[in-house]
Each structure stands twice: as structure tokens, then as C-alpha cells.
Design brief:
A hairpin with a 2-residue loop joins strand 9 and strand 10. The chain has a four-stranded antiparallel beta sheet with strand order 1-6-7-5, with helices on one face. Strands 2-3-4-8 form a four-stranded antiparallel beta sheet, covered by helices on one side. The protein has a two-stranded antiparallel sheet with strand order 9-10. By secondary structure, the chain is α+β, with helices and mostly antiparallel strands. It has two domains: 143 residues, MutM-like, N-terminal (N-terminal domain of MutM-like DNA repair proteins), CATH 3.20.190.10; 125 residues, Helicase, Ruva Protein, domain 3. Helix 4 packs across helix 7 and helix 6 crosses helix 7. The chain binds a DNA duplex through helix 6.
DNA sequence: CACTTGACCTGTCCGC
DNA sequence: TGCGGACAGGTCAAGT
């Protein structure tokens, strides 16, 4: 589910809500949703306070005063929802918010803070995980060492995009964009949206994409990620932010999950196909396969 | 090594 | 209404 804009939206919310909160209790399933030993979980969580909330690619990091960090991947259906309980007396959440409706049967981990606020980690499909490790070791995990550049950092240039993509010159451009070691944070929604923006067919081999189009693609990626963050991300099905609310980017999507509707640029009917094993949405006119 | 496919899970939707 | 199958925002391991 969550791609860069969704994870960033959750991060920003948690960064506003969590720092200074002291963990008083934790309940969790002991399967892969939180594989740490229960004794370690209590030792390094209970009594610790939240220092900061960071993001790298689609991974969230909650840094604690115990010099341990909760490293979290939401995968397809993960949610992190903060319920301030009586601390936010009268603040009111919209009736569509999940706050006040948790825990539910998808809740895997519940952190309770001194004062009664709670943080729920929900994950319907159980692909996501939460792991506790020393803060200093986080950069050493394999994923952090291999993951590509952050597309919204100022040093992400079109030349960098070109060079990273060419590591997979014989694969199709969509598979390359989804490869987190090429660029961090792009998933199925924003791959389709940015390829539409650059008028590139997702089946085009990386080596066959003209340089001029890579420049356009670079700008399209940056623009679509920024727009989605501005709209609070995409809520196709389960995604919600740290306060349990859906994002509105899907109203602004040009092709993703819009098969049968018309391309906003040329009016051609949008098609759905399968590329890199994923449902893929294109305008067959704007994104013609070049011979 | 480069690249593709299947597996991991639960829930929902669609066709018969 | 019920049942089977395909599919859903992401990554890995295993396969070619």
C-alpha cells in the first residue's frame, strides 16, 4: 500500500504527535509482525520516550531515548494510527477517522503511553513488520545499504535517475522504477502516474527510453510525489494517516485505477494491462510503443 | 549476474 | 447467496 507519499504523510503526523510521549506498555503478537523477543520488547520500550520520527524510502523509524529504534514497514495494508484519547479532549476527529474504533481484528501491536494515548499498528494482510534495534545499527541493515536515492532530496538530478535506471537497462522501465535499489519510494501508483506524465509505455526497455524522456520522467516523478504528499497520499483501500484519515490523491490521479475512463490529456480510453506482474494503467495514445 | 516469477496473508469483488 | 478465482498500494527467495 503505502508508497513514499503515504509513508511521508504518516511520518509527518507522528513527528507532530509522538515526541515526548513516554511508553508505558506494549502488547503485540509474537509472530512476524513483531519478531523481537518479548523480554527485549519490554526492556527497551517501557519507560523510553519518543525522540524523533524519521523515514527512508518506505521505512519509518521511531527513535527512542533508550537508544533503540522501532523500524516499521507497512507493506501493503499497514496502518499506524495515534489515538490521543483524553489528551485531545474535544478536538474531535471526523467520523470517517479510525481513531476511536481501534483496536480491531487487524491490530498487531499497541503502544500505550503514559497519560493514556495509544499508537496502533494494524495490518490486515500481515506483510508489514515492526522491529526493535539499536539506533546505531539501523544504517547497517541490508535494505538501508542497498536502497537508492530519495527522489525528493535536492541532490536527486535527472542524470542520477538515468545512471541508476541504467543498472537495469534490459528490464522494462516500470520494473526498474519499482526496484527500491534504483530509486527509493516509488510503488505501483506513482510508477504508473509518472510514466503517464512522461508519455512512456511501461513495457519500454530502459535502454530504449530516449534521454530527453528521462529528463521529463525525472520531473514527472518529483511532481507527482510532491502533489500526493500535498493531498495526504492515496487511499485506494486501507491507507490512512497517523490520525486515521484517508488521503485524497486518488481524485487527482490521471490513470491509476481509471481504466475505462478517458485520458485527461487526449481523451483516449485508459487501458489496464499487466507489467512486471502488477496491474498497470496507461493511455494507449499518449504512451504508444515506439518502434 | 540480470531479470522474472511465485510466495507471503486476508479480504473483497466478480462471474457462474 | 454460495463458491471459486483473481486481484489488492511491497518485498523477498527461488527460478530461468
Amino acid at each position: 500500500m503505502p508508497e513514499l507519499p503515504e509513508v511521508e504523510t504518516v511520518r509527518a503526523g507522528l513527528a507532530r504527535l509522538l515526541p515526548g510521549q513516554v511508553i508505558a506498555d506494549v502488547t503485540h503478537d509474537h509472530d512476524k509482525s513483531f519478531p523481537n523477543a518479548p523480554a527485549d520488547v519490554r526492556q527497551f520500550l517501557v519507560g523510553a520516550s519518543v525522540i524523533d520520527v524519521r523515514r527512508r524510502a518506505k521505512v519509518l523509524m521511531i527513535d527512542l531515548s533508550s537508544e533503540y529504534t522501532l523500524v516499521i514497514h507497512l507493506k501493503m495494508t499497514g496502518q499506524l494510527v495515534f489515538d490521543g484519547a483524553h489528551e485531545h479532549f474535544g478536538a474531535g476527529h471526523p467520523s470517517t477517522s479510525l481513531v476511536g474504533k481501534l483496536p480491531d481484528k487487524s491490530t498487531r501491536v499497541t503502544l500505550t503511553f503514559a497519560g493514556g494515548a495509544k499508537l496502533f499498528f494494524n495490518d490486515q494482510r500481515k506483510f508489514g513488520w515492526m522491529r526493535l534495534m539499536p539506533t546505531i545499527e539501523v544504517p547497517n541493515i541490508d535494505f538501508m545499504k542497498k536502497v537508492g536515492p530519495e527522489p525528493l532530496e535536492p541532490d536527486f538530478t535527472w542524470q542520477m535517475l538515468r545512471d541508476r535506471l541504467l543498472r537495469r537497462k534490459n528490464s522494462n522501465i516500470k520494473a526498474a522504477l519499482l526496484d527500491q535499489t534504483v530509486i527509493a519510494g516509488i510503488g505501483n501508483i506513482y510508477a504508473d502516474e509518472s510514466l503517464w506524465g512522461a508519455k512512456i509505455h511501461p513495457n519500454t526497455l530502459v535502454k530504449d527510453v530516449p534521454t530527453a524522456k528521462l529528463r521529463v520522467l525525472h520531473q514527472a516523478i518529483v511532481d507527482v510525489l510532491r502533489l500526493s504528499i500535498d493531498k495526504g497520499g492515496s487511499s485506494n483501500q486501507t491507507y490512512v494517516d497517523a490520525e486515521g484519515n484517508k488521503g485524497s490523491y486518488m481524485q487527482f490521479a490521471n490513470v491509476f485505477r481509471r481504466e475505462g475512463q478517458t485520458c485527461p490529456r487526449c481523451g483516449t480510453v485508459i487501458e489496464k494491462l499487466r507489467v512486471a506482474g502488477r496491474g498497470t494503467h496507461i493511455c494507449p495514445h499518449c504512451q504508444r510503443v515506439k518502434k
